[in-house]
Amino acid sequence: MSLLVLTESEIRPLISMTEAIAAMEQAFTALARGDAQLPDVIGLQIPEVDGEVHVKGAHYKGLEYVVLKVATGFWQNPALGLPSGSGLMIALDAVTGFPAALLQDNGYLTDLRTGAAGGVAARYLANPVLDKVTVFGSGTQARFQLRSVAAVRQLRGRVAVWSRNPIHADRFAREMTAELDLDVTVAPSVEAALLQTDLVITATPSRQPLFPAAWLPRGVHITAVGSDSPEKQELEVQVFSRAEIIIADHLRQCLRLGEIHHAVEAGLISDDDVTGELGDLILGRIPGRTSKTQITLCDLTGVGVQDAAIACLALGKARALGLGTTLPSLTGGACVN
For residue 59, is pLDDT > 90? Predict the structure, then answer.
């Protein structure tokens, strides 16, 4: 057996956003059909440095590999001149269990698959034509979310960004204007950011709601990305009282880690009030948006099947192109717990 090692620079050019979105649809449908095996998320908090470590993994029928992913978020890193997120993925042969590949992507594939899931949500829940998109957050994930929406919906050019860091917001606006040929501007206030918007993306590590539910206009779709641990919260729980369609990426996980769990804990909704999961939506088991005036919401906590899908896609492309470094691997004896 041998081990293929791929670096971030080799991985980054491999997958387009369109391909990533298609891979996420495949992953969520496998989950909905009951074809996936995945453990609960392991979450470690490192409070003394405002850091967190998440471990996810999955396999579903048809994949060549079992994938385990470690992702980190250390929110004081920018002050040290480092990105706040990093991580890696490990692929095990799905037949033998032996390590097959190490993807040293520094969190890139996690960013890509998370952004692509937002594109899936927008495809099935947002109105087809968006006059205005609002982005809360100005970091890496905010960029991926906007790219994914641009891949699946017609944007008429107006994007408002709001961030607690105005310097970062200005950089986001300039860079995304150039990249996507959109009119991206920094909103002067949260209320202004939400005025007459068609789609709201929340991509922050916030631990308190970003805006009052009453400020959301009719017909808006909300993609909530930031809450992936119990203490995080971007949405006021009253948002769930206004939403007519509530979608979870994985309900069991959202009831533990996502925005949904705050609303359930507050007694505003029960799990029966959740319309369904993304996979059910893709398969047509539940209806998506049926009216321009509906308020729709998708709670994205990040599911292991997404990591399995994106890693296997990257590995297949890398092997076809002859990329990576192959290391010899020794076969071991029996392991006993």
Answer: yes
Reported confidence tier of residue 75, pLDDT bands at 50, 70, 90: confident
**What CA–CA distances, in Å, run from 145 to 18, 31, 181, 274?**
13, 22, 16, 23
Other CB atoms within 10 A of residue 93 CB: 14
Give residue 32's pLDDT: 97
Tokens of 312: 């296997």
Domain 2-110+304-328 in CATH: superfamily? Answer: ornithine cyclodeaminase, domain 1 (3.30.1780.10)
In one letter, which amino acid is 156?
R
**pLDDT one-digit tens code per residue, 121-142:** 999 999 999 999 999 999 999 9
Characterise 267 by phi-psi region: left (phi > 0), alpha (psi -120 to 50), beta (else): left
Average pLDDT of the residues in 257-264: 95
- How far is it, in rounded angstroms, from Cα 33 to Cα 294? 27
Domain residue spans in the chain?
2-110+304-328, 122-299
Angle at 248 between CA 306 and CA 142, to 5 degrees: 65
CATH classification code of 122-299: 3.40.50.720
Nearest one of 4, 70, 104 to 316, comparing CA atoms: 4
pLDDT of residue 331: 61
Exposure of 117 in the CB half-sphere (CA atoms within 13 A)? 33
**Torsion angle of C-alpha atoms 150, 214, 296, 168, degrees rounded to 10:** 30
> To which residue do tokens 């994930």 refer?
141
pTM: 0.93
Catalytic residue among 56, 69, 132, 232: 69
3-state secondary structure 151-193: HHCEEEEEEEEECCCHHHHHHHHHHHHHHHCCEEEECCCHHHH
In which band, very low, low, confident or very high, does the pLDDT at 78 lie, cut at 50, 70 and 90? confident
**Does this chain's domain 2-110+304-328 share its CATH topology with 122-299?**
no
Cα 157 from Cα 181, distance rounded (Å) = 8
* Known catalytic membership, residue 69: yes
